[in-house]
Amino acid sequence: MRFKTLTIIALFISAIFIGCGGNDEQAPTDPKELLAFLEAKIKQNPKDAELYYERGRVLLELDEVTDAINSLTQAISLKSGEEKYHLLLADAHLRNGKVKESYADLQEVLNINPKNIDAYLKIGEIALFSRDYNRSLESIDKAIELDNLNPKAYYMRGYLFLEKGDTTEAIRDLRKTIDLDNEYSQAYELLGLLFINRNDPLGVEYLTTVTTLDPNNTVALYALALYYQDNNDVEKAETFYNKVLTINPQHSDALHNLGYIELTFKQNPDKAIDYFTQAIEVSPNNIQALTNRALAYEQKGDKAAARQGYTDALSIAPAFAPALEGLKRLGK
């Protein structure tokens, strides 16, 4: 995604210079080379606001946030009425943890253009993650008022209602999102998780759509695996857990759950111990894996290893009932 974005920037910049006085200089696509290219152009044209803006975009792509802010500020000092300059500066300030400054940038966008939907949505997003739900909803509703066919606005409002615990309104807005954009993966994901947590098969349909749109979405794959495990379809559960591990071999919960299947469904404590050990190597504080590995040792008759495992679990959570019960069974 970064390469694609920078390529678009480079092509845009190339178009500027190819169209000026017969200059056919080609902008590079490598981000660092593109930055050097822009620096050279700025030296030649120090009053060109667009060059400072493009430099700011590249610097943000390179995670040079403070320098990006400086470059965008220079662009605005040269040409203050450009909405996109203030929008990008809002993103840069937010990346730097400066929420107040980001709000101010977005307000400046609205001063220039009171109908800028992107500014309303960005304000709504910042307020949402700051848990300022009233401000967020007000801003999102304004965006919908300006464009009632904007899928992102409905998705954000659905997410907001979900955060507030109003699942009825959340489902309504998330369904509206996919009505407007049938490839909006994040909306399918939230709907899928909502329904699958109710053990509703409709969640499987939504999450399956997610995996079609985004085959590397481990959240959806893991949720499907857990659903099938909870419904005793071990074969499908294993299939989805293994898909998760193909994408992320360090997924501790998937490793643990494969171990759990070996221990409880297949009565294979040796293989279960192997999975639990892998889960613990990835996440040493995975208390479920520590406890269930101890249980597997207990089933094998290795009381010393079991006792140590339960003790290790209790060192993390002294009141963890399954580990306490395990020690009690072992006579301690």
Question: Secondary-structure blueprint of this entry?
Answer:
Elements: H1 2-18, H2 31-44, H3 49-61, H4 65-78, H5 83-95, H6 99-112, H7 117-129, H8 133-146, H9 151-164, H10 167-180, H11 185-196, H12 202-213, H13 218-230, H14 234-247, H15 252-265, H16 269-282, H17 287-300, H18 303-316, H19 321-329
How would you briefly describe this protein structure?
By secondary structure, the chain is mainly α. The protein is built from 19 helices and no strands.
Notes on the structure:
Among the domains are: 1-97, Alpha Horseshoe (Serine Threonine Protein Phosphatase 5, Tetratricopeptide repeat), CATH 1.25.40.10; 250-332, Tetratricopeptide repeat domain (Serine Threonine Protein Phosphatase 5, Tetratricopeptide repeat, Alpha Horseshoe). Helix content is 77%, strand content 0%. It is built from 19 helices and no strands. It starts with a helix and ends with a helix. The model is unreliable at 1-22 (pLDDT under 50).
